[in-house]
Specification:
This protein is an alpha/beta fold. It is built from 8 helices and 10 strands. The longest helix has 18 residues. The structure holds adenosine-5'-triphosphate (ATP). Adenosine-5'-triphosphate binds next to strand 1 and helix 1.
């Protein structure tokens, strides 16, 4: 589904070149919920931005259902971003002047979809994520967790191949974070959605099927959840403690 092969990315600052991704390889299968964790500066957001081609990279391949994204013209890329990728950001990125319902409809408004189709899909998603009751409210009138569930619904409006989420629970308390993760799990269960999430939050990551741990621009380890969530959380906390030199992430 998503294949990342030998990805290299450097940033040039003045006369210096910093290699941030140093040959990253992994595959994500349809219907998987995968997290990327790792110390600050290890290249997680850069990786996400290379996958969506928001930033260019020097070497390697990103294939979405076998399609090489970097080769596409900007117009085609914009179409792919709207139809085949869904985005969820830490700061929600909702439009303040639109209601929850209208925000969720945006990807289909861009497509010029018929209103009945749009309404049916938005209603289904809003009900699935427990936010149908607030459909007519504006972002300023709802909680952070409700905002992020709105953003998840928006990301799913066009049945994308892949959801890319950058720190989706970064601005939320633990109860709201859990509700957002539950929304991702419902999307995975009911819509066979594929989710790739960058996070610092071990608690959120412990709900995933797999966690890719990055260090210094490379994949350091991949952890697969085989048992219950609590055991996986302990495994993640132990691994992060080692990687952070004993100063582990202790979110729970
Ligand atoms: N536009 C840029 N120009 C130059 N350097 C950059 C740029 N964006 C990121 N970097 C550097 O690249 C490295 C990786 O950054 P990135 O944001 O991908 O890491 P991250 O793992 O997501 O970090 P965090 O967990 O703190 O968000 C960092 O050292 C950062 O300072």
């Amino acid at each position: 589904m998503l294949e990342v092969q030998n990805l290299h990315k450097s940033y040039v600052v003045g006369k210096d070149t910093y290699e941030v991704l140093k040959g990253v390889d992994f595959t994500i299968h349809k219907g998987e919920f995968v997290a990327v964790m790792g110390p600050s500066g290890s290249g997680k957001t850069t990786l996400l931005n290379c996958i969506s081609c928001f930033i260019p990279y020097e070497k390697g391949k990103v294939l979405l259902n076998g399609k090489k994204l970097a080769q596409l013209k900007e117009e085609k890329m914009a179409e792919i971003r709207n139809q085949e990728l869904g985005f969820v950001f830490q700061d929600f990125m909702l439009l303040d002047g639109l209601t929850v319902f209208e925000n969720v409809c945006i990807p289909q408004v861009i497509e010029d979809a018929p209103y009945e189709k749009m309404e049916k899909k938005a209603k289904k998603l809003l009900k699935m994520f427990g936010i149908w009751e607030i459909a007519d409210k504006y972002p300023a009138e709802i909680s952070g967790g409700q905002k992020q569930r709105t953003a998840v619904a928006r990301a799913l409006m066009n049945d994308p191949l892949l959801i890319l989420a950058d720190e989706p629970t970064g601005n939320l308390d633990s109860r709201s974070s859990e509700a957002v993760i539950e929304a991702f799990l419902a999307a995975q269960r009911n819509l066979d959605a594929t989710i790739f999430m960058v996070t610092h939050d071990s608690f959120s990551a412990s709900y995933c099927d797999r966690v890719i741990v990055m260090k210094d621009g490379k994949i350091y380890k991949e952890l697969i959840r085989t048992g219950d969530r609590r055991t996986f959380l302990d495994e993640l906390l132990t691994e992060l403690k080692i990687i952070n030199g004993g100063d582990g992430d202790e979110d729970e």
